[in-house]
Amino acid sequence: MNVATLCDRRYCVEGVVCAQSASTQGADLVFILCLDRETRDVAGRLLDSKGPVIIPVRDLEDYYPVLRELRSQRDWKSYVAALKPFYLGYLLEFFGIEVVAMVDSDMFFWGPVAEIDRVMGDAGILVIDRELDPPPRCGWFNDGFVVARPSGLPFVRWWQERCTEWCQWMTDGGGDRFGAEGYLNVLHDQPGIFPFAKWVQHSGINLAPWNARWHRLNDGDQGFTVDDEFPLICYHYRDFQDFRQTFWEEAPIAKEYLDALYRPYYDRLREVAALIEEAGLKPVD
Fold first, then answer.
1. Beta carbons of 128 and 200 less than 8 angstroms apart
2. Quick one: which of 101, 194, 247, 255 could link to 147 by a disulfide (CB 3.0–4.6 Å)?
3. Residue 21 above 90 pLDDT?
4. What is the pLDDT of residues 62-97, one digit of tens each?
5. Coil, helix or strand for 253?
6. Beta-bridge mates of residue 225
């Protein structure tokens, strides 16, 4: 299983930590799409030369020239949101990799990525249910975790077309249009269109603030488990940017999560931020 993330200057600390955790947990290859020069410099200096594959965003734009048009037409966050299906397609087509889990940069891997392989089976696309019914405006699935292999390319290309037509960051465009991730609803609502796609409920994959409150975290000899049922593979630290400078003891997070997952993650972010400054690289906001 390969893992890929993407980040700009604001999230390069998270991107480095995400990449390191994926490598530690057995990813075959880790890819980082760097959206600016500062991020590319940081990744190149801090990550082992034999580690993650660093991809400048211009390489993606060279492969898909339409992205340059989108960059000129959209605000930065909306442009970045629209990159995800193109990034997946680039990894599968240009690099020819067999399977890749594309994750947001504020993801951290706590358990072996091999569990994702097991859950995916022979599917072409894998997404994880948010466990919220009815779903929020953004839909059934979070596009911060999407797994694909070449047999899933028909969906990836369809997703690229939709994001080219319309993709506004955190904006409800009506119907299934909510940023890039609203389009993922088709996998739930019209499963016959892409029969090779699979969606599952697995509370240990892409566990996040939106559903963690409903689950019990346990720390055992083999690592964390969720509800004594699912191994914790990756946790999505959505909105943790607010806490990077000062850890907030009164954060609205269950104490078991605060102590076990958030404090170690916060410490790791601060370590990497310090390394960036020590290396004389441009400070990260």
1. yes
2. 101
3. yes
4. 999 999 999 999 999 999 999 999 999 999 999 999
5. coil
6. 218, 231
Q: Which two tokens stand for residue 183?
A: 């389009």
Nearest C-alpha neighbor of 149 from the set 173, 177, 120: 120
Q: Cα(26)–Cα(155) distance, rounded to whole angstroms?
A: 27
Judged on CB neighbours under 10 Å (0-12, 13-18, 19+), 285 is: exposed
Angle between helices 66-73 and 76-93 (to 10 degrees): 170
C-alpha angle with apex 138: 136 to 143, nearest 5 degrees?
125
Strand partners, 2: 100
- Please tell me whether residue 237 adopts helix, strand or coil conformation: coil
| Residue 229 tokens, joined | 């049922």
Q: If we measure between CA atoms, which residue out of 232, 213, 201 comes closest to residue 131?
A: 201
State the Cα–Cα distance between residues 246 and 156, nearest whole angstrom.
39
Res 279: pLDDT: 73
Question: C-alpha 242: how far from its chain's center?
Answer: 18
**Contact indicator for 148, 127 with CB cutoff of 8 Å:** no
- For residue 264, which amino acid is it? P
pLDDT band at 285 (very low <50, low <70, confident <90, very high): low
**What CATH topology corresponds to 2-278?**
Spore Coat Polysaccharide Biosynthesis Protein SpsA; Chain A (3.90.550)
Instruction: Look up residue 95 and give its DSSP letter.
Output: S
For residue 86, the Cα-to-chain-centroid distance in whole angstroms is 14
Structure token digits, residue 156: 């990836």
Residue, of 43 and 123, whose pLDDT is higher: 123
Its pTM stands at 0.93
Domain ranges of the chain: 2-278
- For residue 86, what are its two tokens? 């193109």
Q: What is the pLDDT of residue 95?
A: 95
Mean pLDDT across the chain:
90
